[in-house]
Amino acid sequence: MPVAGLVAGLDVHDRAGERAGDPVYRLDLGDHELAEIIHIVCLGADDDVVGAGDVIRLRDASDLADVHGNIGGLADLCLNEDVCVHHAVLPGCQCDRHATLGTGPPLPQGDLAGNGPVTRQAEWRAAAADLREAHITVADLGEFGLIAEMKALLPAGPAQLVGIGDDAAVIRAPDARVVATMDLLVEGRHFRRDWSGAFDVGCKAAARNLADIAAMGAAATALLVGFATPGDLPAEWARDLVRGLATESGRAGASVAGGDVSSADTIMIAVTALGDLAGRDPVTRGGARPGDQLALAGMPGRSAAGLALLTAGLAEPAAVVAAHRRPQPPYDAGPQAAALGATSMIDISDGLVQDLGHVAAASEVRIDIDTARLTRDPQLAAAAAALGGADWLGWALTGGEDHALAATFPAGTRRPAGWTVIGSVAAGRGVRVDGRSSPEHSGWDHFR
């Protein structure tokens, strides 16, 4: 039986008077309901009625000829026609968002050929399309369908010679050295879907790796992404994740050049980032020397404050919550610091004090933090007030996931805007805050 949705010119043979041009005929439960339901719910030209006696072999591996042919993106179900079955379309879907089947005001007449309220009909078609889309999962797309959709959402970057679709990516390396880093995000450990949207998760997954590249004094060139997920994850969530990855990569001047997808019991995102030093020496953690100045680029503490607000069920201040969902590392500050002769540098991912402890250990020096030089962040103060007077300075010193950059510079170095001196380097060991030794573990630890 051919199907008529809102597309004029199709016939519905229901033996009850339904004809082309009657797409908004209201459902009369006394008539032949099936054909009328097809009109009312706006099934598209790729949807067919499956009648009694038809055999459907869902997900038949031997017939993939129509994997991209119908609206839902599902493979051909091995009938003699192009059939697209959406289990949630018929119950409760109607063209008019403001009326239910059999009740409400009459629907306006018209068709897409210019006779009637075309805008309203377009809204009905969009509503039906939205409903179909909401029920498409990554399992419906399949591995190669998901990869194809990801590829379509990921533009090539300037350093990318070969990207998604081959056995491996090829990335330009003008410096002849490649800076590489890798990080892993696990649902429930690094993000929660009830707190963060997929776009935010994609941005965060990219940012935490791109910040590591910047901390070496390099410019990011490309990301490789591994994505594992349960099959029932909505396909649109996966698309938004990819959009977030692409957006944040673009902000750093890089692109997503490849990766892999797999099934898993929980969502996991593994990102490898690559970068170029542009002829400069890498800035490591081990170069700080007594007499250097300690400087900071970025605002530490906001992500920890945002996490505290979300845990308490609060959504304000919005800027602080946003900082937890989508950190904003100062990518340009890394190569800037390297060009100015920074002696050491680190990405603040696990807390300012704890990460500076890594620099102190690698450089075999003592680092002194002067909290009076830390810029008082009014957003942190507002978050502390919202939580009944929490310690905003504690967030700034021990909160992670802001991905600010801390670096040491020879005394007298003129730093560009965005870098603030917050302390100094001396002979000794460890980290001191306002002259007092800090605890050895004063930040994030995955196994504590």
What layout of secondary structure does this protein have?
Layout: H1 33-40, H2 118-134, H3 138-153, E1 160-162, E2 170-171, E3 179-186, H4 198-215, E4 219-229, H5 235-251, E5 255-263, E6 268-276, E7 293-297, H6 302-311, H7 318-325, H8 333-339, E8 344-348, H9 352-363, E9 366-369, H10 378-386, H11 392-398, E10 404-409, E11 419-426, E12 430-433, E13 436-437
Parallel strand pairs: 4-5, 9-12
Antiparallel strand pairs: 1-2, 3-6, 4-6, 7-10, 7-11, 8-10, 9-11, 12-13
Helix pairs in contact: 3-5, 4-5, 6-7, 6-10, 6-11, 10-11
Structure description:
This protein is of the alpha+beta class and 448 residues long. It has three domains: 1-135, no CATH class; 140-276, PurM-like, N-terminal domain (60s Ribosomal Protein L30, Chain: A); 293-437, PurM-like C-terminal domain (Phosphoribosyl-aminoimidazole Synthetase, Chain A, domain 2). 29% of the residues lie in helices and 17% in strands. Strands 8-10-7-11-9-12-13 form a seven-stranded mixed sheet. A four-stranded mixed sheet has the order 3-6-4-5. Strand 12 and strand 13 (436-437) form a beta hairpin. The protein is globular. The chain starts with 32 loop residues before the first helix and ends in an 11-residue tail after the last strand.
